[in-house]
Predict the 3D structure of the following.
Amino acid sequence: MNDLLTERLALHPFTTAEAEQVATATPGPDSNWAPGYPAEGEQSGARMFLRACEAVGDPHPFGGYEIRLRSDGRAIGGIGFHGGPDEDGAVEIGYGLAESFRGQGYAAEAVRRMVEFAREQGVTTFLGNTTHDNVPSQHVMLAAGLQFARQDEELRYYELALKQ
């Protein structure tokens, strides 16, 4: 599977070897990681990808991706689906960036590309959630076109209906 490209980013589909490195925060000889990458969220996403590989084989296109800068190939974060579309055609996304790359529009740019990609794959609904206190992530989802849908005691939920 090829990288998903934006103006500034390459969303690189994980291989199992890359995911193992991220999951353990152990860079390989070819790794080009920005300072602060991977954080716990990216490590958790890599572990989720590896569990999916064990259960069903490579889950792509609905797997995990490394967010890389197109300018120099540095990995600055992670983004991925929490599995393939459910029975209603909905997918859920998770993402994170190294702290020094936050606030520059990279996360919204990556989420917008994943929305576009999900639409191309026939997905009907794009979902995301965040904690109540994670206002920057709430802004990312709104900037990417998702709308606030509901909340519970722990999370705020966002969604976007994708026209087919």
